[in-house]
Amino acid sequence: MENTLKTVTIGLLQHACGTDPEANLAATLDAARSAARAGAQIICTQELFGTQYFCQSENHGNFELAEPIHPNPGPTTQAFQTLAREEKVVIIASLFEQRAPGLFHNTAAIIDADGTLLGTYRKMHIPDDPLYYEKFYFTPGDTSNSGFRTWETAYGKIGVLICWDQWYPEAARLTALSGAEIIFYPTAIGWHPSEKASEGKTQHDAWQTIQRSHAIANGCFVAAVNRIGHEAPAGGEGIEFWGQSFVAAPSGEVIAEAAADQPETLLVQADLAQVHEARTHWPFLRDRRIDAYAGLTERFLD
Q1: What's the structural domain count of the chain?
Q2: pLDDT, tens digit, for every residue of 200-253?
Q3: Is 257 a catalytic residue?
Q4: Entry pTM
Q5: Which member of 44, 97, 123, 134 is catalytic?
Q6: What's the rounded Cα separation, in Å, for the pair 186 and 46?
Q7: Does 192 map to a domain?
Q8: Is 47 an active-site residue?
Q9: Is residue 170 a part of any domain in this protein?
Q10: pLDDT tens digits for 89-142?
């Protein structure tokens, strides 16, 4: 449906995750409802909010945590559809999706303000790093079904990317080219505790800087929502998630930021007129040399 608003209120749900998926879902639903009643119109969960970050180990038992979204939504998607319809809010809910037998994705369900499931975004870039063993669990998204795209919602044109996608300017560019006024990034990122003292500030600064650059280069808002807390579901040192969910304006300015270690619902007003202003005053999209970029489709240029 056509958006007639110039300013929309974004709600980012930052919190810790416990070991009980039912309790995590209930807490996230409560936070989303409270955000809606406080004025939020587009609400985004953090990545895989239903559980602790299970990708810290390769464990076949964790596949039991997944649920379907298409064609028959599972209980989590249904619960958010009901909430969206009752509160008249748009919701981006991050889920562990079982698409088919043996086929799993790290997926965001995009739900409009009337409860309609508009579609899904399936994470395209899948990491495989110490304590981030996502390639064991997730098949990359595919462009024919849920690649880089935009959804027209009741409150604006939104795109969704997920966590590791944050580091890829190509993903943000293609999402913006499809019309996104706001790009949302559900996230689960943190420090290895043994590295925090020496590398922590540099790592966080790089994470925020790359996303601010996406806002500038594409003339859109960027909203990243991250979890907090220390989690070690597989033992060992675990991960200390650094929170600090934030929203950047099309200028790259951080207009709101949450704490590093506290649960917080970040409510942020986004003036969508700034998107048009940025794209006409800094016309990066106009001046792109699309005739000269064929090399981007190559793995390496000799």
Answers
A1: 1
A2: 999 999 999 999 999 999 999 999 999 999 999 999 999 999 999 999 999 999
A3: no
A4: 0.96
A5: 123
A6: 5
A7: yes
A8: yes
A9: yes
A10: 999 999 999 999 999 999 999 999 999 999 999 999 999 999 999 999 999 998
